[in-house]
Amino acid sequence: MLNDIITEHKERMLNLKKYYPFFKLMDVSFAQFQEGRYEMLDMGYIVMGILRFFIEENNFKEKDVTYPEYLDFITSLLKRDFGLNLSAQEYKELADYIFDKIKNEGRPFTFPYYDPIEKKKCISRIKVLESAIRDHTVWYSISSDAIEFYLDTKEIKEESRISVQQLLLEKMIQAQNFQGGKDVIVRINEEVARLQRRKNEIMELLGKDVFAGIEAYEDFVHTGMRWFDEEEKLFKKNKDFIEGALAKMEAEPVQSESYYRTLKEIYELDSQLQIAMTRHGQLLSACTQMQQMTEEAVKRAKLGRLRSHIHFGALLTDLIRSDNAGLLEQLLSPVLLPHIKKRFTLDSLDEALTVKPKQAEAAEKVEEEPPQEIQFADEMEDQRIRKNYTFLMNNLLAAFEKRDTFTLSEFGAAMSRMYSPDILKNADYYSFFVNLCQKQEYVIGGQTENESFLDDILSGAFADREPVHFTITPKSAGAQDEQPMEQSELVFERKGTK
To answer: Region (Disordered): which ranges (predicted)?
Structure first.
C-alpha cells in the first residue's frame, strides 16, 4: 500500500492537472468587473462553451481561430443564453475580460504538487489556449490538456470516439508528447475491440432472434459504422504527422541522449498506430461481412413468413409428377431436428483426462521508462531571451574596452560587420535596448540590486566580473536603420567604476 501511495502519486497529480484551470476559472467573479453589472453570468458555462467552439474550429474544421471570430461567438452566446442586450463596445469589453481570464493574461496555469520520490515540491504548467503569429495575425488554438479535459467531462455520443481520440492524438504529436500519444492509441485500440465485441454479439443475436438482431444492427450502423470513412482519413492524417516528426528529428545534426530517446518514442508511436490501423481495417472487413449476413438473415426471415405452412397434397402431386424422392427432404427435415441433449462417450472422457496441460509460459518482464520531462514553449522562449540578452551585453561591455563613448548606430554597424547583417533583424536585439533604456545608468558586474526583468538576467550572468559603470543618453536626432523602421539614437558613455 505504501509503495502504491508513493510511486503512483506523481502520475495521479499529472492526471488531475487538466482539471485545474477549469476550477481556477470557476473562482473568477464578475462582481468585481464593471461594478457587478454582469454578476449573473456563469463562468463555468462560458468556459465549456468556448472549449467546444475551439474544438469545432481547430479539429473538426481544421483551422485556427482569430480574435474577431472568438468575439462573434462569445457575443452570440452572451446574447442568446444570458439575454444580454449591450452595445458593441460593451460586448467587446466583456469578451476581452473573459478572454484574458482564460488565457491567464498570457501565462500558463501553474499546478503545484509534491513528489514523494524526489522529496520536493514540483510545478506543472497547463495552458487552455495556445497562440501563434502568422502573417502579422495572432491565431489561437486549444491545447491538448484542454481537449482531454473536455472529453473527460462527458462521453460524446454524437461523434465517433475513435475520431475524437485521434483529434487528441494529433494535438499530442504537434506538442511532441509522443509518450502521451501512445496512451491515446491504447484507448483507440480499446474502442476498436469494443466495437468488435459488439459486432459478435449482434451476429449471435441474429441467430436467435432476427428482429431483435436487426434492431441492434441498425443501432450499431448509426453509432459505429457510419464514422469509418472519417476515421480512416484521420488515421492517414496522423500517420503523415508522425512521418513528418520523424523526418524532422532525423534532419537534426545534434544527436544527444534525449535525441535518441525521442526518436525511439516516435518509432514506438508509429508502430502502435500501424497496429491500430490494421485492427481498424479488420473491423471494417468484419462489419462488411456482417452486413451481408444480416441481409441474408432478413431474406430468410421474410421467406419463412411467406411459407408458414406446407400443403401435403401439393407435395405428393409433385413427387408423383417428377418421380423424384429427393423432395421428401422438405417433409422430413423439420421432423429430424438435432438432439438437444448431448453426452460424452467414455473414450472421450478418458482422452480428456489423460491430456497433459501445457507448461505455463514465462511472463515477459516490461521495464517502464520514467516519463520524459517536457520543456514548454514559454520556458524555451525564456531561455532564448536570456541567452541573447547576455550575448548582447557581452558585446556592449567589449565595446567599452575599446571606446569610452559610442552611439547605438555605431554599435549596430560594428555588430553587423562582426557577425552578420541578419543580427539587426532579430527581435531580441531591439527588445534588449528597449528594456535597457528603462534606466539611464547601469553598473554591470558584482552584486547589484534587481529592479527590473533585465536586471534579473544581467545580475546572474555577470556577477563574477569586474563592475563596469556606464550611462545611456538619448539624442534628439533619429537614425534610419537598414530595415523599414526608425530607431532613436542613443549615446553610451563609460564612467568611473563605483
So the answer is: 474-498
CA 66 and chain centroid, separation: 20
- 106 and 254, same domain (yes or no): no
Structural domain contains residue 386: yes
**In terms of residue numbers, what domain contains 232?**
158-306
Does 118 share its domain with 19? yes
Q: Are the CB atoms for 102 and 25 separated by under 8 Å?
A: yes
Residue 178 zone, left/alpha/beta (φ > 0; ψ -120 to 50; rest): alpha
| Any domain includes 367 | no
What are the pLDDT tens digits along the chain (498 aa)?
777 788 788 878 877 888 888 888 888 878 878 888 888 888 889 999 999 898 888 867 778 899 999 999 999 999 998 888 889 999 999 999 999 989 888 888 888 888 888 888 888 888 888 888 888 888 988 887 787 788 777 644 445 566 666 666 776 776 677 777 777 777 777 777 777 777 777 777 777 667 777 777 777 666 555 556 666 666 777 777 777 777 776 666 656 667 767 777 777 777 777 777 787 777 777 777 777 777 777 666 655 554 445 566 777 777 787 888 777 776 677 667 666 666 666 667 667 677 666 655 666 666 666 666 666 777 788 888 888 888 888 888 888 888 889 898 888 898 888 888 888 888 888 888 888 888 888 888 877 666 677 777 877 777 778 888 888 888 754 444 444 445 678 898 888 744
Q: What is the rounded distance in angstroms from the CA atom of residue 50 to the CA atom of residue 101?
A: 12
Beta carbons within 10 angstroms of residue 411's beta carbon = 18
Residues whose CB falls within 8 Å of the CB of residue 169, separated by 6 or more in sequence, listed in order: 181, 184, 185, 188, 238
Same domain, 133 and 191: no
Give the domain-ending residue among 154, 172, 205.
Answer: 154
Antiparallel, parallel or unpaired: β 486-495 and 405-407: antiparallel
Is the pTM higher than 0.90? The answer reads no
Examine the fold and report which residue of 277, 306, 335 is the final residue of a domain before the chain moves on: 306
Burial environment of residue 184 by CB neighbours within 10 A (0 to 12, 13 to 18, 19 or more): buried
